[in-house]
Design brief:
about 210 residues, alpha/beta, 8-stranded mixed sheet, 8 strands
Amino acid sequence: AREAVANYYGEQYEGTGFDPESLILTTSTSEGYSYVFRLLCNPDDEILVPKPSYPLFEFLADLQDVKLVPYPLLYDHGWQIDFPSLHKAVTARTRAVVLVHPNNPTGSYVSTSEQRELNEFCNEHNLALIVDEVFLDYPHDGICRPTFSANQDALTFTLSGLSKISALPQMKLAWIATSGPATQVQAAMERLRSEEHTSELQSHHD
């Protein structure tokens, strides 16, 4: 299954290749968010989330005792990240930045220049990127954008799944693709695999 997902990225997004072992399979992107929130955060830690965006994050954050701090998307000849506000939102308890690529409901994508600035921002503040790409295969303008699953300049967790890609809501298979500096990826994957194994054991027990 991991090899199939890796092949999908290689075929759909030319030049995007990664080790299938950098993938964690989940039953849904919601479960994927829970894994990553638990990996990165202690109770009352903070995660920066875009505004506007969909309300799923509030529900998931409440389950993990994580605090969400919004950062605005501004409209000026297209939607874009308000980086001055993003910098002001960081505190000692901030652990990650959530991106929705493309965003729901704006339909906007993170540009290449924004990605570079986000990587610099995350490295400056020792943060991770959590990128929701469930709608990446459906560009409203027909232009295919790069996936963050190939991002190597900051620790990045890219979430997607079959239910959106295949337009089959009943297909509950999703994944987390982990990328970034090798030492950070290795440490993250060790803990995520432990979380995946614990979840599998609980599922069998139930």
